[in-house]
Amino acid sequence: MSRPGARQQAISGWLFIAVPVVLFVVFLLVPIVAAGVMSLSDYSIIGETTWLGLENYRRMLADPFFWIAMRNTVVYTVMFVPLGLVTALGSALLLNRQARTVKLFRTFFYIPVVSSTVATATIWYWLLNPQHGLFNVVLGWFGINGPAWLYDSKWAMFAIVLMSVWAGFGANMLIFLGGLQGVPQELVDAARVDGANAWQRFRHITVPALSRTTFLVSTLLVIAAFQVFDQAYVLTKGGPGNSTLTIVYYIYNKGFDRLEMGYASAMSLVLFVIILVVSLVNARLSDPAGRRA
Amino acid sequence: MTTAAPRVPQRRRTVRSRVTGALWLVATAVLSVSTIAPLVWTLATSFKPAGEVLSSALRLVPSEPTIQNYLDVFSTVPFGRYFVNSLVIAVGGALTNVFFGALAGYALAKLRFPGRTAVFGVFLGSMMIPTIVTLIPTFIVLRSFPLAGGNDILGQGGIGLINSYAAVLVPYAAGPFAIFFMRQFFASLPDELGEAARIDGAGEFRIFTRIYLPLTAPGLAVLGILTFQAGWNTFLWPLIVLNDPNMMTVQVGLAGFVNNYETAYGPLMAGTVIASIPVLVVFLFAQRYIIQGVASSGLK
């Protein structure tokens, strides 16, 4: 510790990070602890607060809407994550070549990412219009009578999944394109010489070489999927018949519409634990050998 | 798959490679149409008079183009005001994140002080925490902020920072992403630059602003653009803390449109175009940096 200015550096170091540290404490650390405390009460900003112990958690187990929201969120995740992963990887594979047009296509694929979820949702609100929307008009050309999409409880969630994949795959495509740079070309060429076909090369060289990227992208997708809100809020308000009521939407409803902030906090903590567990399981699945970051 | 042989020398274009090339073109063209067509259609709809929107929904060029939809957007709700609110939030958020992100990222990469590794680890880990967990308590913290918005010293009596720009700007003024992103940039610069200046007696803040900061200009630009976009597009938090009609953002206003207009697609699409223009313009001018930034932040 006898370097010149060691003391000076220590003071400066803490001064430089002071603002982020204070913000971290006030807007993350304190809120997490507070959420834990509130989840044991019926806190609602106005009026008396009583301690409920674990009552909020017990209530959740018996709350049919909590289970509907949970089921919808899982349905969304199960459709959105694989579809998002495949679209991102597929488009990255398409663009992983040297051609003048690649940059242009990359821009085209990325453009939906730039717009806000609200803007893409309003665009899709129009696209999915049962009579005049582009979707059903095009389906009509092929003699298919398209569903009412957002007005049909069987199709509304699927429509939201499609919209979310469309809006987001460009960003993950860029991450995959970065990952593809790390696939050893000598190996691919050698396999080709040995007579491996395109699928075999993809399956046995590209996929293993991409395992870290796949892990990263699938984690990002899972975390986003469990927190889906904007699309459901703008497009369907959770309907029709609660078919797009997601867990974050339900928490928002309980917390800020009904001011049942204690109950909403309890649900948000449960969601946190679920996301954590699913991320850990995903880490195991994506990387069985245990090599990580 | 069609990743065939970009680098293998090809003596002649075989039938097979032509087929692959054609398939590639078809696949990329279909994907491009699927991402671009909805946007073009949105633009077309926004210039159609009310009668034409539904009757000739598929026409890309309106037979009687009009800017009436845009005028409607601004006359029925204070959309101009929303626009200014969104600008303040997006620009303000970009400035604070660039400044504090650079300062903290620099300290975590280049200064030695006790607790550095722990602080970095905690910041990094905090990126994993879903925002929904802190939503309600953060709302309460802002609402009971002492001496603001009619509150007394104990934070009681008023609405605190709710319905002020600060409610969106302050909690997210120095996000962990900004710090992490800038730390990576500073870490790649040599330590010797600072050591030399330190021996010459330069202060730490001076070393940061005069020597290291100018070298990370491209990183600052990327971070500024990404945080501007994030700030412009953010929805849930402004929806919660800015509910005074004069404080609403473009995104919150647009979401309200869907309920109020329902089937008036002309004005709705005009609002969508206006809400997307700032981020699209920034993207088209700076796309090289954005694409680099997104790709590298995912990799490291």
- Overall domain count of chain A: 2
Question: The CATH topology of the largest domain in chain A, please?
Answer: MetI-like fold
Number of domains of chain B: 1
SS-based class of chain B:
mainly alpha
- Percent helix of chain A, as a range, is over 70%
Strand residues, percent of chain B: under 5%
Helix and strand content put the structural class of chain A at: mainly alpha
Q: What is the residue-averaged pLDDT of chain A?
A: 90
Q: CATH superfamily of chain B, please?
A: MetI-like
Can you tell me the residue ranges of chain A where pLDDT is under 50 for at least 5 consecutive residues?
none
Shape verdict of chain B = flat
Quaternary form: heterodimer
The helix/strand series of chain A, from N terminus to C terminus, equals HHHHHHHHHHHHHH
CATH first level of chain B: which class? Answer: Mainly Alpha
Order of helices and strands of chain B: HHHHHHHHHHHHHH
Main sheet properties of chain A: none
Put simply, the count of helices of chain B is: 14
Helix content percent band of chain B = 55-70%
The total count of helices of chain A amounts to 14
CATH uppermost class of the largest domain in chain A: Mainly Alpha
